[in-house]
Amino acid sequence: MTGTARLGRTGFAYGCGLTFPEWYKAFISTYHHYFDDIPEQDTNEPLKNIRDMYNPLLCRIGYLPFTWDAEYGCIWCIDVGSGPDEDQQAIYEIDHDILFGLDEVHTDRKQLQEHLVLLYPSFKAYFDHHFVEKG
């Protein structure tokens, strides 16, 4: 899938002002039916667990947080700030403790990238690895 759609303050948006990739929107809209690797989407409080991962620094610089690692020490995020091509929007992780030491206002993309660990080249690659190859 390619292309993105700007989401308003209703539906999927949680106030970070980022464009949600199509793969990600499809994923979170169907999560409740199957997936264990991403925080559960309670039907009574849609996206509550995703809202809990909101980080102003990550979002300001263009990284969309979408899950925690297995130990809840690292946030996984999609690099939506790299451009609209979803095939180029890699998935990274960052130790959430590092975020406490970074200035939310003055840290730039290059400074943040020094702390990011590349996990997958795209959300589709992540999805394929976890749900097709492991299937």
Element-level helix/strand string: EEHHHEEEHHEH
**Biggest β-sheet description:** 4 strands, antiparallel
Global mean pLDDT: 75
- Beta-strand content estimate: 15-25%
Strand arrangement across the biggest beta sheet: 3-4-5-6
Range of helix content: 25-40%
Uncertain runs are 1-14
The secondary-structure class comes to alpha+beta
Number of strands: 6
Protein name: SMI1/KNR4 family protein
Organism: Paenibacillus cookii
At a glance:
The chain has 135 residues and is α+β, with helices and mostly antiparallel strands. The protein is built from six helices and six strands; from the N terminus they run ββαααβββααβα. The protein has helices at residues 22-30, 48-51, 56-61, 96-100, 109-113, 123-133, and strands spanning 4-5, 20-21, 63-68, 74-79, 91-95, 117-120.
